[in-house]
Amino acid sequence: MSGSKHFSEVDFDGITFSDEDLKGVELPHNDALVVSMMVANAKVDKIFVSSGFGPCLLYLSTLEKVLGLSRNDILPVKQTVMGNYGEKTESIGTITLLVTAGDRPPRVRTFMVDFMVVDCPSVYDIIFGYRGLKALEAIISTYHLFLRFHTDAGVGEVRGDQKKARECEKALQELAERKASQGTAGTKSVKVERP
After folding, report:
1. Segment Disordered: which positions (predicted)?
2. For residues 76 and 65, what is the distance between their CA atoms, to the nearest angstrom?
């Protein structure tokens, strides 16, 4: 059969996504899955969910300004990670924090996440990679802009914020343009993909 088949519902071990989940989503879209979760008892709003990126990255600015923690709370471990623009960045350490996904008790899940802490500019507060998704045992749908997971009380969920995703994408492009204008002469335009 040629072409794509439209499914009205997709089932992943009891976790489903359907056309009902598209209410409020502007279609068509190419938006990232940007969500909010509680991290170390603080609400973090700009979490970019990336199933194609392994580690969970926590930016130093988020650690200090949003979570109220400091460099002293980080276990110093140097690791090389790719930055927002494809450049290599050294982590300044790691930290394990409590994360709560979902905002409709009792369909929430609290779990521990190991974060690599990096000190570089970012439009996101956290990049939540597949190691975090695995710890949450989550299934995502970027089309529906949803992250879902099992809880003792049923399926929990975190809805993506399409407006925030678009704001972050715009800010990412502006940051890339500023970086390009400060770079080598002759660079006119840079297209930046999400991490």
Report:
1. 176-195
2. 19
Query: Which two structure tokens, joined as six digits, stand for 109?
Result: 């899940």
Angle in degrees, CA 147, 131, 135, rounded to 5: 65
**Strand 88-101 to strand 80-82: parallel, antiparallel, or no bridges (unpaired)?**
antiparallel
* Cα distance between the two ends of the chain: 34
Task: State the sign of the Cα–Cα–Cα–Cα dihedral 109, 60, 179, 52.
Answer: negative
Q: Which residues 6+ apart lie within 8 Å of 188 measured at CB?
A: 180
Q: Which residues lie closer than 8 Å to 144 by C-beta, 6 or more apart?
A: 17, 21, 22, 25
CATH number of 28-181: 2.40.70.10
pLDDT of residue 186: 44
**Ramachandran angles phi, psi of 33, nearest 5°:** -90, 105
pLDDT digits (tens, 9 = 90+) for 93-152: 999 999 999 989 999 999 999 999 999 888 999 999 999 999 999 999 999 999 999 999
Whole-model pTM: value is 0.84
Structure tokens of 43?
A: 């609400």
CA 170 to chain centroid, in Å, comes to 16
**54 secondary structure, DSSP code:** -
What is the SS3 assignment for 37?
strand
Question: Domain limits of the chain?
Answer: 28-181
